Every structure is written in C-alpha cells, then in structure tokens.
What does this fold into?
Amino acid sequence: MPLALLALAVGAFGIGTTEFVMMGLLPEVADDLHVSLPTAGHLVSAYALGVVIGAPLLAAVTARMSRRTVLIALMALFVAGNAASAFAPDHHWLLAARFLSGLPHGAFFGVGAVVATTMVAPERKARSVSLMFLGLTVANIAGVPVATLMGQHLGWRATFLGVSAIGLAAIAALAALIPHDRVAPAHGGLRGELAALKSLPVWLALGTTVAGFGALFAAYSYITPMLTDSAGYADTSVTLLLALFGVGATVGNLVGGRLADHAMRATLFGGLVSLVVVLGAFPLLMSTPVSAAVAVVLLGVAAFVTGSPLQLMVMEKASSAPSLASSANQAAFNLANAGGAWIGGLALAAGFGATSPALAGAALAVLGLGMAGTAAVVDRRRATVPTAGRERVVAAHVPDALDASLTR
It folds into this structure.
C-alpha cells in the first residue's frame, strides 16, 4: 500500500481524538468555565453540527481545487479550530471553536477516501479506505485515553494544544507524501456537484449509513451504565473497556476493507446482520463481567465492518461527484451519532432497563438492512434496462477521470 495512506491516517487520528475526547473532559470543562454539565454537553453537539454542515458544503465549494491542496487546507482549519478551543475565554467562545473544529471533519474523510482509492489498484479500493479509517479507530484505543489523561492532569486546554500538534504533523505528512494531482473542473460547478446527489441509490446508501451507525450509537452512547449497572463493573474500569471497543472497531475496519474488495454488498449485509445479532444479545451478554467485555469488542467489530463498503458504495453511486458524496456520508455518520443516541435515550427514559438502548439499536440495524436490501433491488432493476438505456445511464455516471487524477 502507498505510504501516502499514512498521511491520511495521521489526519484521521487527530480528528478521531478531538471528536471523542470532549466526552471524557466534560466535567473538567464544566468546572473551569463555571457551567453545568448538561450545558457543557452542548460542546459535543456543536462539533457534530459543524461536521454535518461542513461535510457537504466544503466538499462542494472545493470541487474545482486540487485534492492535495484541499486536504492540507482542511487540516489547517482543523488546527485553527483546536487552537481556538485551547484559548477560548468562556463557554460561548468554546462552542464556536468546537463548531469550527467540526467543519473540516467530514470533508477531510470524504476527499481523503477519494484520494486513497486513486492511489491503488481497483481491487484494493476498499482496503485503502479502511487504512485511512485506521487512524480513526486507533484514536479510540490510544488517542482518546491519552488525551483524556492529559486533560485531567494538565488541564483540558493542554489536550487541545496537543491535538493541534497532531494536526500540524498531519499537514507535514500530507505535504510530503500526497502526490500532486490535476483535477478537471467539476462539470456545472456547485450546481453540477449537488445534482449528482439526486440519485435514489445515493440516498438509499446514505440512509443505510444513518440507520446502521445509528444502531451503534444507540447502544454505545449508554455503554457506561450498561457496564456498571448490568455487568457490575466499577466506574474506574470503564476506560479500559472502551479501549476494547476501539480494538474491536480496528479489527472490524481492517476485515471489512479486505472483504469488501472481494464482495462489497455481501460484506455490508454480513456486517449489518452481525450488528443485529450482537445488539439483540446484549441483555444476555451484559449479565456477567466476562461476557460484557466480549460484547464490547464484538460491537466494535460488527459496526465497523460496514464502514468501508458504505463509503465506497456512496462514492460509486454518485461517481460524477465522489468527493461530495463521500463527505455527505460522513455527515450521515454524525446524524447517526445524534439520532442513535436520542433513540437509545428514549428507550432508557421509558424504563425498559439499562440494556434497552441496545435493543433499540438492533431495531435500527434491521432498518438499515431493509434500506440495503431496497438498494440491491433498485440496482438489479436498473441493470435490466434495455441496452441503449443502459449505455445512457453508464455515460451519465462516468467518474471525472478519478483514477488518472493523481501523478506520482
């Protein structure tokens, strides 16, 4: 695999660290800025809002630019947002800084996925995407725990300065390792880019992302009370168990990338079915400490097996605007984060028990399966159109010389 994928993984590591570390630093931030814990929780939402808005917007407005330049500029914006977070004088400024930090998140992964796939042979595209996402999953194993400890001992501002340093390292790696590219101007400009998202298969793929990863976050958002109330773990053990989730996510990401290169749709279906089974078994698995630890690992594996195939599927369905579609998939991922947590919370608030968010997640995974199945039926029907019509469809979806856009 090209060494340039390492540069993308370093950027993904920094982004993954800053996205999830705030959840562990909320008590310190709330105490330092003299706000309540629920008010401090808005900082998590501000980042997610930045991702949802920035992902499609920045990908669309930078469509005419060199992808190498775009990646470096997005990482520079990431550094600026985290540095602003470190020096924020009050809660309102920190909210704005967290929003700014979230803006480049989705576009970086979206454009990065396109760049990654252009640097490898067609049969290795899913694997290249999974290697970029490796930085995100490793962040959950090492980046977030270390950054949380740093914030608890040196102050939360030191954490965001540290993340800014990771961003600077990513900029240096991108500048040194990503090849210069020549990208033809997008046909029709911004309007042409947005028009590529009118396809039903694109929206079915995005819907599968929202439902599938919504299933994950319905359970994962409430994994701490499951581990303490149902499995009997002490609060001090939760950090280690969350690192186990990161291990499972890393394994699932790598396995999913390798399998998707051979059978993309089968890998997607297999991951979603596994997610239904694992989440459905949570009430039983959370009954003992050992089986609960296994459940946390299996949850990470099952959820992240679907990551690479979903990213590639969206890019293929909107092949005339792959950067925009891929970035939109990252926005869908963050909608899944917010929506899944909300649905899991409804189950918990209804008094169905500590493991009820997992069952709500299983229902969402079934919905994701339904959307993936509908997408398969739509593709099969479109494949049966008459030859002349099929030629017109293919001509309308030829990628804009993606595989020839990078030169070594």
